[in-house]
Amino acid sequence: FGLNVLCNGVVPACTLVYLAFGVVGGARKKFKIDYPVMFPQPTKDGDDAWMFLCAQRAHQQALEWITPFSIMSLFGALTAPFSVAFAGLLWSYSRVTWSSGYQSGD
What pTM did the predictor assign? Predict the structure, then answer.
């Protein structure tokens, strides 16, 4: 059970922290989007506001899926703990990989 907590609780939470502070925070600095602006208005595809919004949406999509993923992991761990632990690591890796592709704005 400890392996499932680590792979489906701690690692995904660290992934979300990385996406929030590393990716979105880095995009905020890179594209010069100052606080308190949360959703800048892009003027065309590919401008700084558009690219920031791509990074922000990648993080938000991960936030939307962490709760259902965690709940399903708890139930799945009752019958297949090692498979579910591997799925937790795979989910975390795929979130980072997917968000890096989504940030490209293509």
Answer: 0.72
